[in-house]
Amino acid sequence: xxxQSQITSFFSKT
Amino acid sequence: xxxxxLVQGSILKKVLEAIKDLVNDANFDCSATGFSLQAMDSSHxxxxxxxxxxxxxxxxxxxxxxxxxxxxxxxxKMLKCAGNDxxxxxxxxxxxxxxxxxxxxxxQDKIADFxxxxxxxxxxxxxxxxxxxxxxxxxxxxEFARICKDLGTIxxxxxxxxxxEGVKFSTRGDIGTANIVCRQNTSIxxxxxxTIIEMQEPVTLTFALRYMNSFAKATPLATQVTISLSSELxxxxxxxxxxxxxxxxxxxxxxxx
Lengths: 14, 257
Description:
The structure holds two protein chains of two kinds. Helices cover 0% and strands 36% of the residues of chain A. Chain A is built from no helices and two strands. Chain A has strands at 2-4, 12-13. Chain B has four helices and 20 strands. The radius of gyration of chain B is 19 Å and the shape is globular. The A-B interface holds A 1-14 and B 40, 43-47, 124-129, 157, 206, 208, 233-234, 250-257. Strand 2 of chain A pairs antiparallel with strand 10 (126-127) of chain B, so a sheet runs across the interface.
């Protein structure tokens, strides 16, 4: 099953 | 004091149409570099980054860095009132809670100003690392829009797969499946119709079509779109804005659990 990942798990807050 | 004059005001109209469905409210940042925005959609699956460089404006005055929160829906409503050939000037005074959009007809016989209320927006700013992408596809933006629209009628997700054969867009739905392959085509006489594939490694990634169709709203901004892919990284879908900058969309992939 494909789960939608989130942008925030690839790019961190500045 | 902020004063930005853009002779080709239609660019700003098109930018708003390209981002307003993805993001409701966002902070526009103004600095010596340019007029920019970074915002995520409400579910944090997609991110849009806009840059309009200061050199692209006929007049660019920004005395100090400013961040202005705006409802993109309301900003789009106001910019819709500008004619396609109008010159658009954005003005704001220091400490003001409003921004003014001034529209001048090319013959200067009609001048309108629209003042819009600003809003306070808490937004997270993300650092986007420089990445070497395994595959970069450049293709006509209208072709990409057509593919996303067509596949969206059949399935919810698109599998984008780049091999040395070309780039394949596939979907699967209740009614069946669809595969569209675009091969490299370096038409020399019509560069806007070229499809160019730079591949270091074959890559296959899955994305929600709903977002791809939302990104395709930027099609009027550029004849070509660039799709950059690496396994386990968000895809970057970039529309260059001639001589001014870009709209880049980042979309998190669907990952097998």
